[in-house]
Design goal:
The complex is a heterotetramer. By secondary structure, chain A is of the alpha/beta class. Chain A has six helices and six strands, in the order βαββββαβαααα. Chain D has a single domain, classed as Thiamin diphosphate (ThDP)-binding fold, Pyr/PP domains (Rossmann fold). The chains are: A alpha/beta, B alpha/beta, C mainly beta, D alpha/beta.
């Protein structure tokens, strides 16, 4: 089972992307998935979490995630003790930043940085980085098929916004793959 | 059939859409809100031909549903927690009138302290309300039970309101893959509502929700109880018919996992069952003779099936996401009573956990099994007063953040 | 007289024979109210001008106007006296009920 | 609209054989309403005298369909009945609520407000006998100032109820309801006309009818009608309508009969001192000054 934790702030789409990943993995990749938010009232700007579980078998686990394979941070101001919880030796931490080195210095796990805010501004005109970070995750890990992610995006957004997000997604996948 | 990635609340709404109620009367409350949002969207976009009543309270939500049902139309409502308690006086009203209303309840903690997260204190309050109560494990079961609920509730032998319980957030807000049947498939399974005996109609005017004094009242209540107990067979038949038509069933009122030769069996309801399945499987793989019993219905209570499934066990553990203050977990009380009726002599443990949305981890469930296995090896009978077995020792609070 | 009639009601024999739910047929009268009266209204048909005031004001609706004369359903009259009080020509007398009378 | 009189009113009784007290004004209000509404009426009644006296298994006084609702739920159940009938395509029916003063102005106010707000197709009757009579005469929100009830005793320190009647009619009208009216069983033709009017209203109607309770008011049973008339004539009650967003006073007497004559007939007011009667009159005059100023064109 792959377990993913998304860190963002209310309004940044951290749960939406947790759900997009689950949708891609389940409906389009034919696996099983679970996605859920950090439970409770949603407040714009407050730190929030999204979770995705992916497996080849039906997922019955209803407990919270205690360890994560991938941690994705949509907003680097959230860096702190919370993002380091439940990391395994081979976990990957993906962060929206221009300076991944300073975060890498604090962790033994692999930290990957992506200037997702700039890319989102270029492609969407707004600093919503969730699909860019999803693209980076897919490019690095191959946890789901890229086509499945794009189908999930198409499925979940209106056509105009989906188009822009898919363009951003494609750009990020290419960009990250060329680095890997 | 469509395969979709939806939340438990979405699954409920989809199930309700497929069941085609005539009228929906509901009041929003966390964590049920998404159900009423979706249903009002379905009414708006025309995919559900229902009247959506914007009632001003939960009390009126169920009262209006009673009005709807009283003329023989299909009614749906949904609530949670304080909302369920606010409509409390109407629950026995509806069941005494034998109105086959279906309600979704998002299990949530009760104030105070205030808390919006999941536990089962709310519906446990309503065990005596005369409603059928089922607890579902995942979003698929939630959807399927909305359809089964109407079929069971409207059966002429049953005619009893039906409460489908989903753990708040853990089920209501978790997205997972759900197979959504087609309208044609559901229509073939669930025919239009057709009531005659207990409704107001122009053909045979009736007086409903009448008074019956001390000279007649008791017989009405006995009839209600006897017929609720007999609904067990209808519940089993409907689930079997559902499985035949849709290719998935839930084994009636309870499901057993490796219970036949198990020395210790954990009894769970609702979503915890899923987590317990993983732990039970792991322990079996280690050679430990452990079983799991998923108790789906609390009313009617499946006394016979339960005691039969538990009869070979030496230790039984009951998981409760509730406390009956001054006593113990409510399901524990019910299971004990069933075991006593059958003259069984298992050792019984009560695991109280998950209150106010406290996480129930795999380790917690592992610990429950470990405690039961210790009991198994204790030669003394825990029910013997000479052993350390004061009543409170049978209660184990799980995942508590400080010393007791 | 065109007024609802008593039904011949038999107690259910078994619990199963009780109604489904707290229900009963409407228009289902099983006991009369005659015993409530101390006085009974008696219409003096000579004085009656058939203004129908008594028919209108009777809280129990026991005055029937379908025939040639107004008639009182004594099975359900409670003897409240509203009819006599409201009768302008004083055509209704409240007469004390006698045992067996 | 043809006037409804004792002559043209149907002889058919749809509410019959109930066990209300002799001379009960409320049962007369229900009886006449049912006659005007007819046999395709679905009546919803909360806990209260009318349900307690007419659904006693196995004795059923309604000849039409009828249901007892939870106390707080007249508006909601009647609305549900209307919705159910609409969904089933059962046409030409009336969904009607008959609640008392407590069931309307106190515990049932929320559900009534919800129904009016939604514009549900129901006719709601408030049968106002000015206290909780079914439970043995306790004060409600519609109990007038100076009324002795079992929970507002009159003695050396208190004059009985210390509050005036809650203004239900205007509370209902403030929802911009389709039709609302006040009535009295002392003015039956006016009342019947209002019921007839409500039948053709699209949306919610509300009829608030004053109905004396001989038991609770401490009167002999035969004066129910004349006392209800006197309540209007002395100005403590009034006949009005709210329609198309406008108030209308149906009866605007040049002079009032003495309040004293009205209250002295009733056991519930026997204790009132002159000063307290003056208080009732002062409140009456203030109310009428406002109604005449705003409701009379």
């Amino acid at each position: 089972m792959i377990e993913v934790r998304w860190h963002g702030r209310g309004g940044q789409g951290s749960f939406t992307v947790a759900r997009l990943l689950g949708l891609a993995a389940s409906v389009y990749d034919g696996k099983y998935a679970q996605a859920f938010p950090s439970f409770g009232p949603e407040r714009r700007g407050a730190p929030v979490l999204g979770f995705t579980r992916i497996d080849d078998y039906k997922i019955t686990d209803r407990s919270e995630l205690d360890v994560c394979d991938y941690v994705i941070i949509l907003d680097e101001t959230l860096w702190g003790a919370d993002v380091k919880v439940g990391l395994k030796e081979n976990s990957i931490v993906l962060i929206n930043t221009k300076n991944p080195e300073r975060y890498q210095a604090e962790l033994s796990q692999r930290v990957v940085g992506l200037d997702a805010t700039q890319m989102a501004l270029d492609y969407l005109g707004i600093p919503i980085t969730n699909t860019a970070m999803l693209a980076a995750l897919v490019a690095i890990t191959g946890v789901v098929e890229t086509e499945s992610c794009k189908s999930a995006i198409e499925d979940s957004m209106n056509p105009k916004i989906a188009g822009k997000n898919i363009a951003l997604f494609d750009y990020v996948v290419k960009e990250v793959a060329s680095r890997e | 059939m469509a395969r979709r990635f939806v939340s438990g609340n979405d699954a409920v709404a989809e199930g309700v859409r497929l069941a085609r109620p005539h009228v929906i009367s509901a009041y929003p409350i966390t964590p049920q809100t998404i159900v009423v949002e979706r249903l009002s969207e379905f009414v708006e976009d025309g995919s559900l031909q229902s009247i959506y009543m914007h009632v001003e309270s939960e009390h009126s939500a169920l009262a209006a549903a009673m009005g709807v049902s009283s003329v023989g139309a299909r009614a749906f409502t949904a609530t949670s927690s304080q909302g369920l308690l606010y409509m409390a006086e109407n629950l026995p009203y509806a069941s005494g009138a034998r109105m086959p209303i279906v309600m979704m309840n998002a299990n949530r903690a009760l104030a105070t302290p205030w808390n919006i997260y999941g536990d089962q204190m709310d519906s446990m309050f309503m065990l005596n309300s005369g409603w059928i109560q089922v607890y579902v494990e995942d979003a698929q079961e939630a959807l399927d039970m909305m359809i089964q609920a109407y079929k069971i509730a409207e059966d002429p032998k049953v005619l009893t309101p039906f409460m489908v319980n989903l753990d708040g957030f853990v089920l209501t807000h978790t997205y997972e893959v759900v197979d959504i049947p087609t309208q044609e498939e559901v229509d073939a399974f669930l025919p239009p509502i057709n009531l005659s005996e207990n409704i107001m109609s122009m053909e045979a005017p009736k007086s409903l929700c009448i008074t019956a004094g001390n000279n007649y009242n008791m017989e009405f209540k006995i009839k209600q109880n006897e017929e609720m107990i007999e609904s067990i067979s209808v519940i089993e038949q409907v689930d079997a018919a559902f499985e035949k038509q849709f290719g998935r069933g839930y084994n009636g009122l309870l499901e057993t996992v490796d219970c036949e030769d198990a020395d210790v069996i954990l009894v769970t309801t609702g979503s915890i069952t899923g987590t317990a399945r993983m732990v039970q499987k792991t322990l079996r793989a280690e050679g430990k003779k452990v079983g799991l019993l998923k108790l789906r219905y609390l009313r009617p209570f499946p006394t016979k099936a339960l005691t039969e499934a538990l009869k070979n066990a030496k230790v039984v553990g009951v998981v409760d996401k509730n406390i009956s203050f001054g006593y113990e977990g409510t399901i524990f009380t019910n299971v004990n009573s069933a075991l006593m009726q059958e003259g069984a002599s298992q050792k019984v443990d009560n695991f109280i956990c998950g209150l106010g949305g406290r996480d129930v981890t795999k380790e917690n469930i592992h610990e429950m099994y470990e405690k039961m296995l210790v009991h198994l090896e204790t030669s003394a009978d825990v029910n013997d007063a000479n052993v350390a077995s004061k009543p409170q020792d049978r209660i184990h609070y799980m995942n508590v953040r400080c010393a007791l | 007289m065109n007024r609802p009639k008593m039904v011949n009601f038999k107690d259910p024999e078994t619990v199963r024979d009780y109604p489904m739910g707290a229900t009963c047929d409407s228009d289902h009268l099983t006991s009369i109210n005659a015993g409530w009266r101390t006085f009974r209204p008696v219409i003096d048909q000579e004085k009656c001008i058939k203004c129908m005031r008594c028919f209108l004001v009777c809280p129990d609706g026991v005055i029937d106007k379908s025939g040639d004369q107004l008639e009182i359903d004594y099975d359900f009259c409670k003897g409240c006296g509203v009819c006599a009080h409201e009768c302008k020509p004083k055509a209704i007398n409240m007469v004390k009920e006698a045992i067996n009378g | 609209m043809e006037r409804i009189t004792a002559r043209n009113l149907t002889n058919e009784e749809l509410f019959y054989g109930h066990k209300a007290c002799g001379g009960c004004g409320e049962s007369l209000a229900v009886r006449l309403a049912m006659k005007i509404l007819g046999e395709r009426t679905f009546a919803s009644l909360p806990a209260g005298c009318m349900s307690a006296v007419s659904f006693i298994y196995p004795n059923m006084a309604f000849r039409t369909n009828a249901i007892i609702t939870p106390f707080a739920s007249t508006g909601a159940v009647a609305a549900g009945v209307a919705a159910g009938l609409q969904a089933l395509g059962i046409k030409d029916t009336y969904s009607v609520g008959f609640a008392g003063d407590g069931g309307t102005a106190d515990i049932g106010l929320q559900a009534l407000s919800g129904a009016i707000d939604r514009g549900d197709q129901i006719i709601y009757f408030c049968n106002d006998n000015e206290a909780y009579m079914n439970t043995g005469i306790q004060k409600s929100g519609l109990t007038p100032f100076g009324t002795k009830t079992t929970t507002s005793p009159a003695g050396a320190n208190l004059p009985g109820s210390t509050t005036m009647k809650k203004n239900m009619f205007e509370i209902v009208a403030a929802h911009d309801i389709a039709y609302a009216a006040t009535a009295s069983v002392g003015y039956l033709e006016d009342y019947m006309m209002k019921v007839e009017k409500a039948k053709s209203v699209k949306g919610t109607s509300y009829i608030h009818v004053l109905a004396p309770c001989p038991t609770g008011w401490g009167t002999t049973s035969e004066i129910t009608i004349s006392l209800a008339k006197e309540a209007v004539d002395c100005g403590l009650w009034y006949l009005a309508e709210y329609e198309d967003g406008e108030f209308k006073l149906n009866k605007n007497p040049k002079e009032f009969t003495p309040v004293e004559n009205y209250v002295k007939k009733q056991g519930r007011f026997k204790h009132l001192k002159d000063a307290e009667i003056k208080q009732l009159e002062a409140a009456r005059d203030k109310k009428w000054e406002k109604m005449r100023r705003n409701w009379v064109k």
